[in-house]
Write a structure and sequence with these properties.
Elements (H helix, E strand, L loop, with lengths): L33 E5 L3 E4 H14 L5 E4 L5 E5 L12 E9 L4 E6 L3 H14 L4 E5 L4 E3 L1
Antiparallel strand pairs: 1-6, 1-7, 2-5, 3-6, 4-5, 7-8
Helix pairs in contact: 1-2
Length: about 140
């Protein structure tokens, strides 16, 4: 799973629970010929990112090249069950990546169009948000 090697601070404030707005950077394909764009804003856990990556690699039969354009760098803490209030902030439970609508999350190249679209649609099914498969020729496909 993805997580930072050595974060500057172990714990962060959650700030706003729901990520809002549209992404202005990372909205176009930079590396591959096919990509998976998120259509909603959300927090994606490192487990969800990894599950989508595995689905893409399995469908592409480890052919081609895959780029992951998001990284979970926000720690989410949780106190143990049945613990009284106080005594500080809980331990880090998992890591999330904040993604806004329009962000390209995965890019794929080196496989034919049918395989790429099928692999990215399988990855979209693993994620809790609506996604769209995009092609370098700016022809949009819905997932």
């Amino acid at each position: 799973m993805l997580l930072p090697k050595k974060p500057k601070y172990r714990k962060q404030q959650k700030k706003v629970r729901h990520v809002t707005g549209r992404e202005t950077r990372g909205c176009t394909l930079s590396f591959g010929n096919y990509g998976l764009r998120c259509m909603e804003s959300a927090w994606l856990t490192s487990r969800q990112i990894e599950a989508a990556r595995i689905a893409i690699n399995r469908e592409a039969k480890r052919g081609g090249k895959l780029w992951i354009r998001i990284f979970p760098d926000k720690p989410i803490t949780k106190k143990p069950a049945e613990t009284r209030m106080g005594k500080g902030k809980g331990a880090t439970e998992y890591w999330v990546a904040e993604v806004r609508a329009g962000k390209i999350m995965y890019e794929l190249t080196g496989v034919n169009r049918e395989t790429a679209v099928k692999a990215l649609k399988l990855a979209a099914a693993k994620l809790p948000i609506k996604c769209q498969v995009v092609e370098r020729s700016e022809y949009l496909l819905t997932a």
